[in-house]
Here is the input.
Amino acid sequence: MDDFRKMRQKFTLFLLVFSVGLSAQKGIRFEHDLAFADALAFAKTEKKLIFVDAYTSWCGPCKMMASRVFPDSAVGLYFNAHFVNLKTDMEKGEGPGLAQRYGVEFFPTLLFLNGEGQVVHKAVGYHNAEEFLKLAKTAADPSANLLSLETRYKKGERNADLLKALTDAKNAAFDPATGQLANEYLKTQTNLSSPENMDFIMRYVDDPFSEGFRFLQKNRTAFEDKFSQKEVKQKLDGLFENYLQSHPNLQLGEVQRLYGAVYPEQGERLASNYRLTYYQQREDMVNFAKAALDHYTRYPSNDADELNEIAFLFVQNVTEPALLQEALKWAEQSVSIRESHYNQDTLARLYFKTGKKKQAAAAARRSIQLAKTAGEDASQTEQLLEKINGK
Here is the structure.
């Protein structure tokens, strides 16, 4: 009897070990049929956090995590022991409501919530198995997760270690407050030229008017030596574009100031060029024409296509004779640099608009000839020629 009992115990233990091993091999066990409200209640009861894989059906990195990371045995072992795991399509069922509630805008978003529904930790984007496990362990650490760091910050703590850790966490969550926190951290530093702080500036600084960015500009050569000219240029270009996109209501003067801050050596030229775009987008063609004349007087172009484009915009939008004469110079210069069907057509239209019918007809005929030689459509220029000839 005792032998039978021992054999049964061994068999039960074997099944248990086999079951655990099988479970680990399967990776994360997601509760597919569990409503979010029930998951919160279950998490409270089990004293666990909730992990939410916020995904969409079309998201490539989401599919990669589902096929490569979630099935990992080590990942499954940790997640199944510490979290209630939900996999939620953000475009179906409860997904849109959860996306709005938790500010999910990028995919995948990896959410870690407590039983009260608070965000304990958050990250965005693909993570390999090692990175994902590290993320989960940080989320499960009540002294290191995002909620803990934010709580300390809200209570007034501002030491360098906290600010750096919170900046890292906010950045991983794609939080727009990352740059502001980075600026706060840099204010605690006495040596911005340390390798660690140079890395930090390149990674996190996003305010072109901040102390950290001014340090980068002042020491650009040192940053180019540490990273590369290409990386520093990418940093500047990305910072400029992101700042412009995140401040859509900037006035013209503010944009000009932005150009000066990010591109001090060519800021005025770039700002001058931006004025053309600014007025054109607002269909303020009077100021557009004035800005264009000012720009190309100060910054002449030798690009045939650019000169033809600006001259053609004058054809379409300008009636003042003095301005049309300037456009005529641009069109003639474009033709002299590289003749084409398009710039000869523009030249013909400008001649015609300024009352020079003979020159207009000659330019139109030349445009048609070039178009036919190149196999391009000349019908618009043929209609212009008929109009010039009074037909």
